[in-house]
Each structure stands twice: as C-alpha cells, then as structure tokens.
Design brief:
This protein is α+β, with helices and mostly antiparallel strands and 319 residues long. The protein folds into two domains: 8-143, PAS domain (Beta-Lactamase), CATH 3.30.450; 158-316, Alpha-Beta Plaits (2-Layer Sandwich). Helices cover 44% and strands 22% of the residues. It has eleven helices and twelve strands. The strands form three sheets. It has a five-stranded antiparallel beta sheet with strand order 2-1-5-4-3. A five-stranded mixed beta sheet has the order 7-8-6-11-12, sandwiched between helices. Helix 7 packs across helix 11 (292-308) and helix 8 packs across helix 9. The longest helix is centred in the middle third of the chain and has 22 residues, at 136-157. The chain is elongated, with a radius of gyration of 33 Å.
C-alpha cells in the first residue's frame, strides 16, 4: 500500500477518521458544489452527506455570506495558498446551534475557518477544503473576560453609590475642557453645587436615607442635562457639571431649572419623605485662570457665596 494507491481498507480507515474528527470538513468544487461532508457537519447541520452531495452550498445554506466566501475562495485559488478567518472577524460561517452545556449562554457555535486549495496532478486548484473548528469555549471565555474588564473599567471611573463619574475622572474632564478652551476659545462654564444642610438630613433620617437623597439628586440632575454635559460627584454631597459651549446666561438657565426641580421634589425613604435644596456656583471660563484647578476654585468660591448668602440659590463668579 502507498499513499498514491490506497487500498480499500485504507480508504475505509480514512473515511472513519474524517467522520470521527471534531472538525468540520467540506470539500467544494469550483462551483461550490459539495463533494465531501464529514460526520461533524452531519451532526451539527442535520444534513447527511448523501443528501448534500453535489448540491451548491449556498442553495442549502442561504444565510452564508456568498460574496464574502466567494472572494475568499477566489483568493485561495489564485494564490494557491490557504486562508484563515477567526471567530473575532466573523463569529460563524454556519449557523449551528451551540450544543455545549458549559457554554450554553451562547446561542450559536463560534467557528474558526480555514480554506485550503486542493490541486490536481498538474498543480491546478480544482477543489477547496473548508475546515470548520468549534471554538465556542475559547470565544465564550474571552468575551466573558472582556465584559469583566469593561465592568472593572467602568467601576474605576464611576461613583459606586450614584453611578456618576467619580472625582478623579470628572477632574480629568475639567482639565480636558480647560485645554480645549485654550485651543479653540469657545464658551464653556463650570458648575459646582451641593446639598444644603445635608448633615442634618443624615442626623434626622439616617445615612441610608441620606444615600437615597444622593441617588435622587444624581438621577434628577442627569435627566435635566444635555448629552454633551458631564456630571460628576466631587465628594460627599458636592457635585460638579461641565457645560461645554455654554456662556454664563445659558449656564444660569440650566442651573435654575435644576434648582427648581430639586426644590419641588420629594424623596420617599423608609424614614419618611425628605425635601431638600441645593446651592450652586457657576464660573464661565476666561483666560484668567492659569490651570483647571484655578477654574474649579472660581466655581467653588461662587458656591461658597451662595451658601453664605442664604442657600437654595445660584451665584455667578465675579472675577
């Protein structure tokens, strides 16, 4: 027996091997008619080799991207070299259901695909071999890791209680807005506000109720801002807002809307309903501050003036 002259017994072994490997094997002629369809493909497609033999692959599986696979096949034939596609480029070629119990969270089997040229004795490519690898476990684990890393990244940037940007992240955005102003000289305003007499809220109703107030203010203010605005929790009961492309009058209108919404709202807690107000300071950016920290200090000074002059009011920084 030689490789060039296989015996019936060796052909039987080869057929058994092709049917038992955990890889999908398909041989196509140049018109994409199926010439070989192994056991893996039978098991996952529910179509036997005899039923698909000589049928055009795209007729049996119309969901396969014909233009894409044709381009791949043409390149393999022209260059007489194999091509590889990972699940990250295209999750699957065949829409096979995921049958793995461990990774049952995924609806479909993730697949890597190799397309190899099959040449005749003259060296001409006359058929193509598609090898389909089930990589669902690998893909699922990687996707889960990516989701976990994304969640950790979000947690590192946000305040756990309110879900707003935390102090470090928000300050970085203030710095970026400061640099943007220096480059483009566009109007931009900074707002600092905090809850009036928040300590008395905690003392009277308890810290859990105080947490409900903090979550309430975050949700209320966020709902009144534009998509371009950046709201963060600066610390304790103090918050900050970056208002890009907004002059002092526009900032005052936005802040008054927020002040009224807070004053007229009620936070329902297990300790009883809570009414509260906020004091607000606004500073429109000019060329006077030397850095973003000086700009923040201006808004904070205006906030202090609002609290000192009676609370539940808005004060604009006067440089």
């Amino acid at each position: 027996m030689t490789a060039n002259n296989p015996t019936p017994q060796s052909l039987h072994w080869m057929t058994d091997m092709l049917d038992s490997v955990e890889v999908g094997l398909i041989v196509l002629d140049r018109e994409f008619r199926v010439q070989l369809w192994n056991g893996f493909m039978e098991n996952h497609s529910g179509i036997t080799a005899s039923n698909i033999h000589n049928r055009v692959l795209f007729d049996v599986f119309p969901e396969i991207p014909k233009a894409w696979l044709t381009r791949k096949a043409d390149a393999v034939t022209l260059l007489n070299t194999r091509a590889f596609t990972s699940w990250e480029q295209r999750p699957y070629l065949f829409r096979f259901r995921n049958t793995r119990p461990i990774t049952g969270t995924e609806d479909y089997m993730f697949q890597n695909l190799t397309i190899s040229p099959l040449s005749n004795s003259s060296g001409e490519v006359e058929k193509l071999c598609l090898m389909v690898y089930d990589v669902t476990d690998i893909a699922t684990h990687k996707r889960a890791l990516e989701r976990a890393n994304a969640q950790l990244s979000r947690l590192s940037m946000t305040d756990r209680l309110t879900g707003l940007l935390n102090r470090a992240t928000w300050e970085n955005l203030v710095d970026a807005e400061f640099e943007r102003f220096r480059r483009y000289n566009q109007n931009t305003s900074l707002v600092m506000f905090d809850i009036d007499a928040f300590k008395s809220v905690n003392d009277r109703y308890g810290h859990l109720a105080g947490d409900e107030v903090l979550k309430h203010i975050a949700k209320t203010v966020k709902g009144l801002l534009r998509q371009s605005d950046s709201l963060g929790r600066y610390g304790g009961e103090e918050f900050g807002i970056i208002l890009p492309e907004t002059d002092i009058e526009g900032a005052r209108i936005i802040c008054e809307r927020i002040r009224e919404a807070i004053e007229n709202s009620e936070v329902k807690t297990s300790a009883g309903p809570i009414h509260y107000t906020i004091s607000t300071g606004i500073a429109q950016l000019t060329h006077a501050p030397k850095n973003h920290m000086k700009w923040m200090q201006q808004a904070d000074d205006a906030l202090y003036a609002a609290k000192s002059s009676g609370r539940n009011r808005i004060v604009v920084y006067q440089g």
